[in-house]
Amino acid sequence: MGYFSKASALALAIGLLGVASPAWADFWSDAGAKYKGVVLHGVTESTPPSNFIKDVLAPEFEKKTGIKVEIETTSWDQMYDKAIKDMEAGTGIYDMVYIEQDIIYAYLARNFLTDITKSLKDMPDLKAPTYDDANFTSFANYFKNADGDLFGVPMEAFLKLYLYRKDLFDDPKIQAAFKEKTGHDLKPASTHAEYTEIADFFTQYGKDNGMELWGSTAQAHTGHPASWYEFFESVAPTFGVYNWGIDASKNYAASVANGGTMNGDKAKAAIKWWLHLRDIAPPESPQSTWTEVGTTFAAGRAAQGLVYGENGAWIQSDATKSKVTGKVGFALPPLEPGVLEEAEAGKGYIGYYDGGAFGLPITSKNKEAALLFLQFIGQNEVQPDWAVAAPRITNTATYDDPKVKEMDAKLGGYYTMLKDKGKLFAGAPPYPFHAQVREATAPIFYDILTGKIGPDEGLDAMAAKAEEELTTLGYRK
Amino acid sequence: MKLMRRHRSWLSVLFWIAISFVTLFPIYWLFVISVKPAVELFSTPELLLRNVYWQNYIDVLNNPTLRGYMLNSLIISSCNAVLVTTLGFLACYALTRFDLPGKESIFFWTITNRMAPPAVFLLPLFLLLTQVYRIGDFKLADSRIGMILVYCTFNLPFAIWTLRPTLDAIPRELDEAAYVDGASPWTVISDIVFPLARPGVAVTLILTWVFAWNEYLLAATLTNFNARTLTTGLSEYVTTTGTAWGIMAAISVFTLIPALIVFSLVQKHIVAGLTFGAVKG
Amino acid sequence: MHSKKLGWLLLAPTLLILGLFGIFPFLYVVWVSFHEWNPFAANPAKIFNWAANYRKLVFDAQFLASLGVTMAFVFFAVVSEVIIGYLLAQAFMKDFPGRAFFRTIHTLPLIMAPIIVGSIWKLMTTPSIGIIPYMLKHTVGFDLNIGTSAVAAFAITVIMDIWHWTPLVTLTLIAALVSLPSEPFEQAQIDGANKRQIFWHLTLPMIRPALIATVFIRLMDAMRTVDEVLMLTGGGPGSATRYVGVHIFREVFPRTNYGYGSAVSVIVLYLTIVICWLLYVSLIAPRTRKGSS
């Protein structure tokens, strides 16, 4: 696993213990004394950032405070289901739940989570001197309510970026062939037309030369919501269709007739563009979720593609999983004219800023101790090693750490991209009905992918279905 | 005559080897996945292994959490299999030997417990195990005993339905003769009926063990820290940052070992020395 | 002949456990199925809505389609499993070298957790890089893509199920065949009956209860298949392999549609019971009743 391996995580843990400054250590042992013997329980997905909490931060916290932390790691769907059942039934199993950025609004709507900002204000004894809400990057804004109070301590944040194969793009022979064929210079695409041109070229190039190489990835699974996400999170926004084409200010309209954009001309252009890419992508694409897209790119089967940031880093750096280490370039996704301007003006966004936070369920029976732990993992001090072990950054100060800068260089500027361009990306729309509308419309989306329904009629049907579901749920009046 | 028979038996060995290829191929492929680095899984497949990559196995062996899961799985599935086979055997004895009113309806009702689509029943089970079935601080949720009992919902009906034909086939005259000789019901069950039912009991034990060993959804919802089983451990490797196919495969290869031990212990009872000329064909 | 008390005593633990963990959850599900309940709706409470969920599902095209493909899946999978399973069980009755070894090999698929079975088959059938599509393409030129072809995906789920569960049929039938008394068969041979006559008039009637029990178990288990298919195809392409188990899973888990999901489950449970009851009444009950009286 390259530098994400367990051995290096352990080494980091030992290093971390030495680094922590003694003045703050007093706070932790004093504050923790009252809760000695308490066991905190958390649930999260088994990803590198979470494993760092489990393997490194939790043991260190226990050493300092005497509070034990048990983290249950489980699969993506199970994690939600378990957290929701616990909070819905008020069982109080969990003191910390992982909140992916897209489910926070559902949890907030149900008052499932404790207001961290307010709780720390009410209980100043618990406030750690090294913790401050203001330390986080703008990503933390996705975990705040209307008053600006924080409901989750960010623990991971990624951008879904445009990855391309530098080695292929820089190959003079390929450059010449591209120039000859298209009349343009080969460089990372900034518009959709350029992207398609490059994709067509490489798919043909792979075929002509008997290579296992295609022009683009496509997260186009015909039975898994990953494809739905690729379209609505990553493709549609680059055509100027935001928030899934649902307009909350117009009574949650989705269809053009009611003021939405889900089946507008832009969305229809977007899906046709993407379907063409799917057709010239590697043949496994109709079975590809985020997992397979990452693996396909890592196996060197695609010249370019949109890949989640959590995968981008290991593709670039982990030779046991990737054949293209050091050969990956990161760029902004290709856009329609005008979209970048809208994003810069704050009226739109160009792709998905995903990640998650740790929240404190209102049903927890150990809120005070859990607040201590949440502050502990939110400190600037623990961030750099965490960023090196798992490629995520949540605190502004982390970018300037020498270790992180060194890693940024290795990753080919991924962190710089996160720092400078992060604001152009956005998390999921603030909908409490995220999974519900997705599940209601996804079967139609799969039918578009299999060709059972045309893209235009398909989007019309999806917009109608979304409105129907929103009416059933009571959001659309 | 003897020569011909030997000839035929070798033919059937050939037949079995051919069939075994089909059965074994996916398992062979599981092994192939387990000894390949992730980077090689998404390239042109090769039927034969060129080099072997043991890192997945090393990772699994060095993972203390998985050892805990393995122990939980072994305890839960073994206790559950013995429990349901015993209870199922007693229930079948009652169903076949006693003239109980409505027994056919009861018999049929037991199996309906297995028919329920699992997803929706998780919520009531979760509520029952966390909030209703508790003594003081002890909850059935996230405990081995809780899982052993919950697994009865699908395994007990199975045991009853596979054991009943076996017990039906054992002539009642045998028990009655023993009763005439003054044997107690318990002696009749353990000394007369049980030995004759051994093939059926062995198969029931194996299969209920397997169902409990492989169960995923209930364990995933009803356990958290103390009673997590191997199948829930496997699902941890399916994440948004990728699925660790190699590790999952290595774990599964490890799970074959205890399963094979259980099989070899129980299997020999399946053929309790009875073979029939006629069936040989 | 014996005291009924003893009979009830022997049944009591079974009835108690199934009551505690079977009846109560079932009643809860039935109760929920009469409510509009989605914890992430604008109103997250349970709202009693009579039989609205049931009325809705009668016209729910997605549910009906799901039921249709499930029936096809169950039919093809279970029929193949029973035929192959019986033939293998019969073949295992012969004496040949290495019998125990081969029997162990043929029980191996059972030991695989469904989630692993789904993973193996997914990796074996991934378009272009799975071994099966790769071999098919390079030997017979057939392009197998379970991501685009509904028929291919359906067939692979059926084949996967056959691979996984035929050993169960084989094992239970071996147990049944082994327990058969030998006299009738010897007598039949003496009387000059041929193989086919022996099968239809002796073997089949004698193993019928075990055979039907096995068919039942496979039938109801196939009706509720979730893990393998979710892992292999996710229910796709489109809704081609969205079997009711998968459909309910998606309704209840990500969509948190508890009220409607409960109604669907109750109906599916009811249908399974009806199918099994019809089979039971027509095939087993008359015989057992006669046998036990």
Question: Which key terms come to mind for this protein?
Answer:
B: mainly alpha; MetI-like fold; two-stranded antiparallel ribbon; 74% helix; globular; C: 293 residues; two-stranded antiparallel sheet; 14 helices; disordered C terminus
Describe this structure in words.
The complex is a heterotrimer of chains A (477), B (281) and C (293). Helices cover 47% and strands 10% of the residues of chain A. Chain A is an alpha/beta fold. Chain A has a five-stranded mixed sheet. A three-stranded antiparallel sheet of chain A has the order 6-5-7. The longest helix of chain A has 19 residues, at 455-473. Chain B has 281 residues and is mainly alpha-helical. Chain B has 15 helices and four strands. In chain B, the strands form two sheets. Chain B has a two-stranded antiparallel sheet. In chain B, strands 3-4 form a two-stranded antiparallel sheet. The longest helix of chain B is centred in the first third of the chain and has 34 residues, at 64-97. The model of chain B is unreliable at 273-281 (pLDDT under 50). By secondary structure, chain C is mainly α. Chain C has one domain (67-292): MetI-like fold. Chain C has helices spanning 4-32, 52-58, 61-92, 99-105, 108-111, 114-125, 131-139, 150-178, 183-190, 195-223, 227-232, 244-252, 258-283, 285-292, and strands at 35-36, 47-48. Chains in contact: A-B, A-C, B-C. At the B-C interface, helix 1, helix 4, helix 5, helix 6 and helix 8 of B face helix 1, helix 3, helix 4, helix 5 and helix 6 of C.
Write a compact overview of the structure shown.
The complex is a heterotrimer of chains A (477), B (281) and C (293). By secondary structure, chain A is an alpha/beta fold.
Write the layout of secondary structure elements.
The complex is a heterotrimer of chains A (477), B (281) and C (293).
Chain A: H1 6-19, H2 22-33, E1 39-45, H3 48-65, E2 68-74, H4 76-89, E3 96-100, H5 104-109, H6 116-122, E4 152-159, E5 161-165, H7 166-169, H8 172-182, H9 192-208, H10 226-235, H11 265-280, H12 290-298, E6 304-307, H13 309-317, E7 328-331, H14 339-344, E8 353-359, H15 367-378, H16 383-389, H17 402-410, H18 414-421, H19 434-450, H20 455-473
Helix pairs in contact in A: 1-3, 9-11, 12-13, 19-20
Chain B: H1 2-34, H2 38-41, H3 55-61, H4 64-97, H5 103-115, H6 118-132, E1 134-135, E2 138-139, H7 144-150, H8 152-169, H9 172-180, H10 185-196, H11 198-214, H12 217-222, H13 230-235, E3 238-239, E4 242-243, H14 245-267, H15 277-280
Antiparallel strand pairs in B: 1-2, 3-4
Helix pairs in contact in B: 1-14, 3-14, 4-7, 4-8, 4-11, 5-8, 8-11, 9-10, 11-14
Chain C: H1 4-32, E1 35-36, E2 47-48, H2 52-58, H3 61-92, H4 99-105, H5 108-111, H6 114-125, H7 131-139, H8 150-178, H9 183-190, H10 195-223, H11 227-232, H12 244-252, H13 258-283, H14 285-292
Antiparallel strand pairs in C: 1-2
Helix pairs in contact in C: 3-8, 3-10, 8-10, 10-13, 12-13
